[in-house]
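dude i think i finally got it to work??
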Amino acid sequence: MKKFSSRRIEKNSTVLFNSLGCKLNKYELEVMRSQAEKLGLTPLFRQSVADVVVINTCSVTNQASRDSRKMIRSYRRKNEDAYIVVTGCYAQTDSEILDSLDIDLWVENHEKENFYKCIAPDINDLNTKTVPEKSVLDSIKFQSRPFLKVQDGCNAFCSYCIIPRARGRSRSLEADTVLKQLEELAPNYPEIVLTGVNLGQYRDGNIDLLELLKKSVEVSGLGRIRISSIEPVDLSPDLLEFLVSHPKICNHLHIALQGAQNDLLKAMRRKYTIEEYTDRLKYIKQNNPEFCLGTDVIVGFPGEDEASFEEGFKNIQAMPLDYFHVFTFSSREKTVAEKLPNHIENPIKKSRNRRLTELSNIRKDAFLNRQVGRKLQVVVERERPASGYFKGLSSNYVPVIFESETNKSLQMVSVKVEEFHRNKVHAKLVTT
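look at this
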């Protein structure tokens, strides 16, 4: 933590939160929001002006770092007298630039969970009885499906990645605390998303991710759990069997691939082969054909010549993937990949991105079209696309639109899919 001004916060001030980047940032915003509320501050939603502004930054790419700086400056222009707090990965990896951004407080990543301790000394006339203990979330205001961070940091040190520098080594939330949070959230939220920087590295003593999940599904009133993202090396046979077969685990996994060819995987310092990755996907589809499988792919990594790209493209074509997020490699300062030879020219990277994105769109459309005629269990979101309509998400990651005369927000409902249209399906509510 570092203070950059003598600015103070008035009691009962308004506070708004915004973030860039990953699902962890969204969870951390909820933690900070909950603590700010207990200190007597009033959270705002969708506004751009407040007495206190909290910005959770990202540095996964150079563009994310630029966007973080842009967001900070934009909020300062709109809030000349506000108390501005900056935290997150960009603030962590590039803290030397914070002096020039006209902020009031830098909160380091490891301090977010005790956010209240950072701002409480600057709140005028604070009633010390309202100061919270370390937060256990019992309500969510920014999400319809709460993200619950159970792991942070990473020990992998992939050559393109800044995250170990930004978030430190792998560490995990105590299993008892995870279960307590689930018990608090389960009565009000039919789906909870477990997330982490590298979720498969979860460890609390002898409790690994599989044992944590076995305990979690026994929580009273729990609807279902979604795994946010996981590394292929962490998908042991026992964990795979549990994920594929247990009714309270969503039929959806996002399994990071990154490099689509074995030489590229080695250069990226990824600890698996294309063959091992593909075998895991095939196991899932063979044992649960309704599963939705997604991934991340980087194109234009240094050394990705035409032959390796074409080999990677064929590898992906042969995988039973239903969608993939395609990222164009952007050299990130302070990473190993920045100094690798044979960087790829931008026009070539853009062309390769287009080809893979087109393939992803074809796969996604085919997967959604296969849902027509099926009955799905959908968790309904807070926001409505239009009056009389609701949107939600199925266990196997299908976006659904349906009509209802009564409010179905934050409920799990049954629908029958009638048609597929533009990245989502339209369905009819099933009342029996």
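The radius of gyration is 22 Å.
im so relieved honestly
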